[in-house]
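Example S7 (structure tokens).
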């Protein structure tokens, strides 16, 4: 089949846009009705085009009700304590020399991928200055005068560079305490002039490292799945980058809301850097586990598509970000999404991983269907898994 490039190109935009829409979707099974005019409050907030930061700048002492999350949702799981809940650390030192060292790293990654779905990476080759400069430039962008940012404020799916406050799509759902600048590199490419000058140089340098680390990870993940080392790279399922540059303003009533609600990521791999404030937590054994900032480390986690691709070998784990009195907190999450070419093909569990003992857990589908699903279910999707479970069949 000849892939219709225009359609496939559109799909990559859809994929990238869907990350923005759903990566922090408000998974809120408890809210069905709210006792205020939700639509009006969302509209007013949206029309100001000054984001969550704008509310804080205006000096609000109580958070608007649109941002209030039900206490039973916030407190549903306790926070775990102690060394038993420290994230696995993957040390990449010497991995390029291959041999026994590489096998060791592959084994450690395989274990972390299967048992945790989250791990931190050290000795990844990204200079500390580059990471710091990226975080600083994102702070600079979000702190530009409102009128300088206004033209980039939109929820339009086709825009490769935009900022907004990730407002919930479903009526009645609460908003959360963050603003996001989203920058999409389709097939690893974006004209740098599209990026606001406040963070252009830094983002363009940072993405090159993200691509390098992603390529290395693709190789190590392939091996950890028992596949040829170039398998995932050749599939191109991680060959577009959607970068969410997040700004969580100081929150006057942090116990009433969340920076990012409980969610799993939708795509394949997320590589995250964060400043020193912390607040990120992952859900493990029905407890929240803190993921504290480690200055040089990258945090990696899988999205739902990697769990599907690996036929449940690698797990996509839910996480959230607490709101805090201190702020702003800055983090940058780089989501790997498919290339234009890969987006035009049906997708499902890797055939080599399907055996009689372990049949396909998911059916094959087109990415378009997957992201359309998120789009329509919006904020209420906890995970798309159950709707894509089924025997493997081609839907063309
Ligand atoms: C995300 C996310 C965590 C953070 O963007 O999907 O989970 O620390 N971010 O900002
Ligand atoms: Ni996330």
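Recovered sequence:
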């Amino acid at each position: 089949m000849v892939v219709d490039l225009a359609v496939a190109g559109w799909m990559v935009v859809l994929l990238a846009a869907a990350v923005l829409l759903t990566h922090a979707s408000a998974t809120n099974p408890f809210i069905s009705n709210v006792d205020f005019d939700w639509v009006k409050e969302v509209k007013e907030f949206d029309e100001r085009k000054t984001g969550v930061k704008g509310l804080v700048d205006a000096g609000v002492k109580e958070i608007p009700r649109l941002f209030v999350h039900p206490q039973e949702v916030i407190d549903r799981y306790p926070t775990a304590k102690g060394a038993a809940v420290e994230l696995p650390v993957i040390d990449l030192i010497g991995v390029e020399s291959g041999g026994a060292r590489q096998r060791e790293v592959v084994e450690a990654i395989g274990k972390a991928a299967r048992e945790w779905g989250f791990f931190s990476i050290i000795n990844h080759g990204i200079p500390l200055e580059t990471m710091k400069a990226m975080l600083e430039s994102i702070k600079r962008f979000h702190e530009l005068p409102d009128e300088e940012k206004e033209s980039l404020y939109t929820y339009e799916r086709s825009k490769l560079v935009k900022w907004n406050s990730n407002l919930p799509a479903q009526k009645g759902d609460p908003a959360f305490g963050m603003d996001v600048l989203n920058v999409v590199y389709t097939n690893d490419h974006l004209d740098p002039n599209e990026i606001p000058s406040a963070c252009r140089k830094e983002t363009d340098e940072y993405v090159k490292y993200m691509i390098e680390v992603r390529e290395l990870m693709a190789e190590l993940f392939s091996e950890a799945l028992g596949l040829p080392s170039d398998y995932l790279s050749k599939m191109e399922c991680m060959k577009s980058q959607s970068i969410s540059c997040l700004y969580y303003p100081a929150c006057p009533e942090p116990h009433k809301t969340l920076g990012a609600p409980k969610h799993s990521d939708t795509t394949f791999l997320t590589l995250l850097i964060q400043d020193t404030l912390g607040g990120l937590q992952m859900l493990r054994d029905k407890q929240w586990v803190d993921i504290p900032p480690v200055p040089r480390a990258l945090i990696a986690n899988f999205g739902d598509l990697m769990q599907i691709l690996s036929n449940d070998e690698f797990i996509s784990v839910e996480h959230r970000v607490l709101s805090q009195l201190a702020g702003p907190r800055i983090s940058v999450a780089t989501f790997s999404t498919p290339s234009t070419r890969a987006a035009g093909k049906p997708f499902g569990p890797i055939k080599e991983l399907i055996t009689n003992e372990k049949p396909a857990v998911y059916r094959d589908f087109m990415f378009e269907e997957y992201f359309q699903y998120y789009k329509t279910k919006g904020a209420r999707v906890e995970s798309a898994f159950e709707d894509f479970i089924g025997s493997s069949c081609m839907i063309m």
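Notes on this example. Residues 1-10, 20-30, 391-396 have pLDDT under 50 and may be disordered.
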